[in-house]
Amino acid sequence: SRQSVWRYCLSMVLTGLWPQPALVLAAGSGICLSPSSFRVDLVQGLSPRAAERLQRAFKRLKGHIFNSPSRAHTHLQVEGGVEWLAQLSVRVASSDLRLTVRTNESYELTVNLSGAQLLAPTVYGALHGLETFSQLTSPLANCGVGINASTVFIQDAPRFRWRGLMLDTARHFLPVPTLTGMLDAMSYNKLNVLHWHISDSQSFPLATRKTKALARGAFAPHLVYTTSDVQAVIAFAADRGIRVVPELDSPGHATSWSLGYPNATLPQCHTTDPTANATFALLADLVSEVSALFPDEFFHIGGDEVDFNCWNNSERVVAYMSRHNLPRNNTGFKELTVQYIGRVASLLGEQGKTVIAWQEAMDHYGPTAANPTPPSPQLPANAVIEQWLEPEWNWANLSAITGEGYLGRPDARWPAGFQGFEALVTLGWYLDAVADLNSWEAVYVREPLTNQSCTYDSHHREVSCECKCPSGPWRDDKCHCYDLRGKADAAAKVLGGEAPIWGEHIDASNLESRAWPRASAVAERLWSAMELNNATAATPRMLKHRCRMLERGVRVTPLGPGFC
Fold first, then answer.
1. Out of 79, 305, 350, 504, which one is annotated catalytic?
2. For residue 211, what pLDDT is reported?
3. Is 305 part of the annotated catalytic residue set?
């Protein structure tokens, strides 16, 4: 089985692979690599741009293998006569450099005494394979560096298509070198999406041509990202197989917009003005320019944490609601939010973008005690909902988002014909949480398809699972956990997940240590098999992976006493 293969690999001292590949077979005493003779060759014709991207990756690979500061310190060695690996041959089937949520990231890696071969359908699968090859190597006392097995076979592909990290550049400005450093670290963990939370109430640090007054909301004139900055980040990310998805959060979290566009905002409510024509004129210009700047098909519109109480005290909002026969209550304010989000989604649709929104954007459509069967959501059918709220706080948990059903309330359901949305999971993976700095294990065991907390035995079998009993007017005395494992249709709608790092207390000085290695735990959970869920068994690999990231210049939080 896959699990027994994994345990066999541990016995072979191939303990440094992270995230753990789908299939690993290894045998033999070891093989050495020489910096003067080891070659990495592209053995079939690709387009010049595809070949150049891989050649840059080859250069990074050799740097990781041979330039590590710890390579001279080891007790491991090749047993018997020393054999040398001369070449890694790389074969990629396609020159297509488009990087999307549908890109095939699989690869196959073979190492033996006659050479090593990496096969991949795409450049991006090859990039992951190169990272795995680098992780196979370690210092060996009698030849400098090598692989502690002379025969290795790996087949690998990610479990989820979306494996992301969210960075917040609004609470603290993060310089471009800080962003690119995080992208490097993401590539070491096979994460493939940077969710860039660009703006928030605290600042708007993006320089735009059509809406240049928005940058008045930056902390300082020089603390903005220019078009060249953004293009550099996107290019750096693409070279490492990482997509960059922008988020411009509204209507909430938009105080910074008011410094440049007071007629389009309600600064006392920290929102854009959902009733003003000026708001949608601004959004039309902003969305068109930012959509052109970011090539990814997805665009995150936010949609979270709108202050309805403040809107209720806004003369402009109250007058608008009266003119449009919207009740001045929670139902009316939800409808106003629905209309706003629908108009923003339409603007993005005109730009060919797919909408992502925080889950409140769906909550506003959801069942209430008075109306358990509301109309179908008015978001585009291809919208993606990002889950972040605990199930006891709201009803749009993962089961509801994907159309599986509302838990504990059989009469609360979407109408026939609504199939649910695709979803992203963040619940349990907030890396800005100070209390959990060293608890990578808690992050590691968080299964994306359920809110149950499970314990496992040494064979990765569930011993017990439980979730907290929420309270509320629609709850009874039973716990209503959601679990999409084994529910193929609903589970297929979960694209993957992200680990958010909100920036209230994080800047360039502590970003890496706050993120890593807990983000590595998220990376394995999103890449590797669901059954690979025992943090104790994963600890030797995590410790070695942390040391490797330190060697590569990432400031990773210590996990306890250790030589690195």
1. 305
2. 97
3. yes
